[in-house]
Amino acid sequence: MSSHPPRVFSGVQPTGNLHLGNYLGAITRFVTLQDSHDCIYCVVDLHAITLWQDPKELTHNIREVTAAFLAAGIDADKHIVFNQSQVSAHAELAWVFNCVARMGWLNRMTQFKEKAGKHKENASVGLFSYPNLMAADILAYRATHVPVGEDQKQHLELSRDIAQKFNTDFAESIAANGHQGGFFPLPEPLITGPATRVMSLRDGSKKMSKSDPSDYSRINLTDDQDMIAKKIRKARTDPEPLPSETAGFEGRPEAANLVGIYAALAGKSHEEVLHDFGGQQFSVFKPALAELAAETLGPISTEMKKLMAAPDHIDDILRAGAARARAIAAPIFDDVRRIIGFVS
Ligand code: AQP
């Protein structure tokens, strides 16, 4: 049990094509947690530039992720919504963590290997040290809980390792500066939502992803009803009818994925969905799924459009959120300075 007061932190990258996986794996969880926790939700624009971003598109995408947060039901008055680059503690603490984390730890990160691909030598240094910045995002607020999709599990484990090593390396100084126990909490991943790993509509073995070159691989939060229906109609499946029990998903990742999406959107279990659709052909199931997806996402995309029409309002929300975030992070980073021994 952590002795630190519970606080939730999570982020989404403004890299365009916000999709159903981001929504079900992360954003819906953000919304749920606001009833029980103090939450800080961040548009992680510093992370976005680990791969080159067109400046105009980046600005648009920062506002679009913010609009998605608000449209999905995040309350920016009660909780904190801001973009990362406005709070310098993220970058400052990331530097400290660059000096705490070991090369060997980062060399094991599978996301870097996937994103850098065969051209590792050409990848930015930022892409390699990305997990240290992620640890800084969380620990700048001494956050204790981090709702993420399954793909972020390894990075969260690294955040815990960094927190642990900092606490151990500076144990004496932490105590001398009047802090009981570890200075940083070991943040817990919350990978528990209805769909922690939504898969591509074109390939059930790959996760749904913003960077997939095929737009038909994902349902974007900005897709209209017709586009959603078209993408689901074209989603890859197999010729068999849906199984009656989950054991029948063996070797059928696309069927499992579509049923998983239906279950998550309907707030039902996989078994309940198979109770209703087991034995049915995809020609029956897909239109039902398309209708449900359009019903759920339609109001969100309409609200996003409305919010995007008033960019100044979005920027005001981000600015106000950043001021509140800074007020939490600044004294924590002052403590870090003292613990390390910097003179200020
Ligand atoms: N397919 C997914 N299923 C469930 N959750 C997912 N997340 C991402 N993809 C899925 C979760 O969404 C949150 C924000 O993700 P991010 O903006 O940090 O981007 P990412 O994890 O790198 O994944 P993307 O969106 O697919 O982008 P690319 O194509 O750049 O890899 C995180 O909590 C993530 O787990």
Strands, helices and their partners?
Layout: E1 8-12, H1 20-33, E2 39-43, H2 45-48, H3 55-72, E3 80-83, H4 89-98, H5 103-107, H6 110-116, H7 125-139, E4 145-147, H8 153-169, H9 171-176, E5 188-190, H10 225-234, H11 253-266, H12 270-277, H13 282-308, H14 311-340
Parallel strand pairs: 1-2, 2-3, 4-5
Helix pairs in contact: 3-13, 4-7, 7-8, 10-13, 11-12, 11-13
Bound molecules: adenosine-5'-tetraphosphate.
Residues 12-13, 15, 21-22, 25-26, 148-149, 151-152, 196-198, 207-211 line the site of adenosine-5'-tetraphosphate.
What can you tell me about this protein's structure?
The protein has 344 residues and is mainly alpha-helical. It is 54% helix and 6% strand. It folds into two domains: 8-196 and 311-340, Rossmann fold (3-Layer(aba) Sandwich), CATH 3.40.50; 215-306, Tyrosyl-Transfer RNA Synthetase (Orthogonal Bundle). It has a three-stranded parallel sheet with strand order 1-2-3. The protein has a two-stranded parallel ribbon with strand order 4-5. α1 links the parallel β1 and β2 (39-43). The chain is globular. It binds adenosine-5'-tetraphosphate. The site of adenosine-5'-tetraphosphate has 19 residues, from α1.
CATH class of the largest domain: Alpha Beta
List low-pLDDT spans: none
Helical stretch tally: 14
Full CATH superfamily name of the largest domain:
HUPs
**Proportion of residues in helical segments:** 40-55%
Ligands in the model, by name, code or SMILES, are: adenosine-5'-tetraphosphate
**Tally of structural domains:** 2
- Strand order in space, largest sheet: 1-2-3
Using DSSP, what is the number of strands? 5
Query: Mean pLDDT score, rounded?
Result: 96
Secondary-structure arrangement, i.e. CATH architecture of the largest domain: 3-Layer(aba) Sandwich
Span between termini:
34 Å
Question: Biggest sheet, open or closed, and with what strands and sense?
Answer: 3 strands, parallel
